[in-house]
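Progress against Task 2.4 (sequence-to-structure conversion) is shown through the following example record, which the project officer requested during the mid-term review.
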Amino acid sequence: MRTIVKLSGIIAVSIALTGGLAGCGMLSADKPATDADILMGQEGRTLWESSLQYVKIVNRDVASGISNEHPASISSDELRTVLGAMYVNERTGFTSSENPLFSASELQILSTAISSGLSQAAPNEDVNFVSIGSFKGLIAQERKTNTGRVFMSGGRLNIIFGLIHELYREKDLATGQEIDRRINPLVPGKRKSDSDLATRVALDSGQSFYLDPETGKERSDWLVIDIATVLATAKERKTGDDGTISPELLEDIVRNKQENGNLRQDVGNMKEILFDMSGEIDRLKKEIEDLKAKP
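Structure tokens generated for the chain above:
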């Protein structure tokens, strides 16, 4: 059961968090001001790096299997639209909802750095990423980790996720000890084994899970994306006086709509919980009165 707090407090906190997302976006002071800032620090095969987070060009994890079509050309704007079209199914308390896979800051960094990486990668190379985004929780913002292996094959963008919205912690809840990331690294997905994710992408137009030819089963950690279909779908969903709006504004509209929908669900669920609690309180009061009445 969810933690019980005042309904007015939930509304106030939710409004504050929504404003905070629009105002700050990034998790830390590492936020790049422009796309150029993201790529400025490229050294060797590292495209972007900040503490545990990175985007890097790496060797394929296996030599065989479907072939890479690299270098590949996809603009950062197109990739931002593709990544921004990804949502995940999540459950909080009694509420199930579809939430953006990537935060606004993750979209800014990953779209630029991965686009650059795919344009530089050789056929025997992938682009790996580890990112940590800030998302609205039940009461406060939560830090969640996304990791993936990205490559182009068969004219489609492939992403093998290692983690999806994994709650990021610096210390172990049971022991209070700092988590050693050398022992517990944040790793991208692999071609040869399923990541067995607890959270999965909510498929939309142009998105599908990879069908493993050896097992005949879908890999829910491996997303195959028809870029043209995703871009066309996003274009169809645009509205405005002149028939078009910027990808950034469209993204804000979609995310704000989702935030408002989630808030309405939270308020509705909280009313039900408070109603149930009122009955429980009345029952306890009666028990206390009965105990007092006994000789």
